[in-house]
Amino acid sequence: MFRQLGRLGHMSAPPLDPSEHRSGALLDHLARRMRLRSETVLAPLGLRPRHLVALTVLRAGGGTSQQALATILEMDSTNIVGLLNDLEAEQLVERRRSPEDRRRHVVELTQDGAKRLSEAECALAGAEDEVLGALDPNERETLYELLRRAAATTSPINCTEVICAGDEPL
Amino acid sequence: MFRQLGRLGHMSAPPLDPSEHRSGALLDHLARRMRLRSETVLAPLGLRPRHLVALTVLRAGGGTSQQALATILEMDSTNIVGLLNDLEAEQLVERRRSPEDRRRHVVELTQDGAKRLSEAECALAGAEDEVLGALDPNERETLYELLRRAAATTSPINCTEVICAGDEPL
DNA sequence: AAGGATCGTCTGTGCAGCACCAACTATTTA
DNA sequence: TAAATAGTTGGTGCTGCACAGACGATCCTT
To answer: So what's the pLDDT on residue B68?
Structure first.
């Protein structure tokens, strides 16, 4: 017995090279937890999680073309149309023709939109308390700031396949 | 004037009370960006994002019942079955009967599982570089640590509706 | 002026990730 | 012995997307 598993039974954290620390799965996990709660909290406000993401991006980014929005959200631009239709139907967002290029729409948050967004954020306090309960206010603010900065950059999807050395033996 | 909304027109960042900073939308946004990349990176390894989440939870948590896993992942327990079937089919995970309660399965990461997980994390380096490009290594480690700690706690879904004061007047 | 590219729109199709329900077995607890 | 619990199986259906095709409007070339 104990043949091939020299893993000592049950412990929590096998020594992990910090350079291999990946936030992806954690991000996924926490986002799910948050989204499940957001859905029910946001419903009475007539919003869904993706609407909140769009509003947040618009608040951070000012006037943006739908194309740009598709790039930022990394969604197909045909789906952006419907998303913006939802928001515009409730006057949370405004589509204006760009004066420089009349093909483009400049999408912008309205006052109503900003207000609704802030209401939503307020309503989400409880949800966040549950999901981020392990973090104190300072840590939450740090987290927020890191996420905000990361989300503020647009990255192309390249992602060349990398073969990692040092893993394959045994 | 400037009653409750001091925001004018179009600028990027209206003054936002730090206590209203919500990470939910950012979490959602970044998780999506990450997931889109993960899918293609993970595919050659025979994994999908949710598999990675499960493996990560198992590495962090040691032996867990499927019930507990459902609670942690906040997924319906019937879907946990299929998820674990996938993982067990590739021997990344082991279901053993619990000695104390023979109804239960104790799910545990195998050596193969730990190896595959670490390979996957390694392969995701490029994806993370793209998504978290705005953060330097120190900040990424901070982010990882915050996410890890937040994900380590299990929170019940209560989320009482809260009406925020100071928002409702026109 | 003419041709091609680009932006947004519309419609339609299809898939993946889930939740939810119902029924069943094996086991534990009351 | 009866009732509750853990896991499994199978089925249904919703939602959020991606993707493709076609179209008008508007650029940008040449």
So the answer is: 96
A121 touches chain B (CB under 8 A): yes
CATH number at residue A55: 1.10.10.10
Does B148 map to a domain? no
Domain residues for the domain of A75 are 38-151
> ipTM value of the model?
0.89
A86-92 contact pairs (CB < 8 A, 24+): A86/A51, A87/A51, A87/A54, A87/A55, A87/A113, A90/A46, A90/A116, A92/A51, A92/A55, A92/A116, A92/A117
Q: Stated in angstroms, how far is A145 CA from C29 C1'?
A: 50
Nearest residue, CB atoms, B26 vs list A5, A23, A56: A56
User: Is the Cβ atom of A75 within 7 Å of strand D at any atom?
Assistant: yes
**pLDDT single digits (tens) A94-135:** 999 999 999 999 999 999 999 999 999 999 999 999 999 999
Q: How many structural domains compose chain A?
A: 1
Looking at the complex, does the CB of residue A126 fall below 8 Å from at least one CB of chain B?
Answer: yes
Asked if the C-beta of A45 comes within 8 angstroms of chain B's C-beta atoms, the answer is no
Continuous H helices in B43-158 = 49-61, 66-73, 77-89, 111-123, 125-131, 137-151
> Please, what sign has the CA dihedral across residues A57, A58, A61, A66?
positive
Distance from the A128 Cα atom to the nearest Cα atom in chain B, whole angstroms: 7
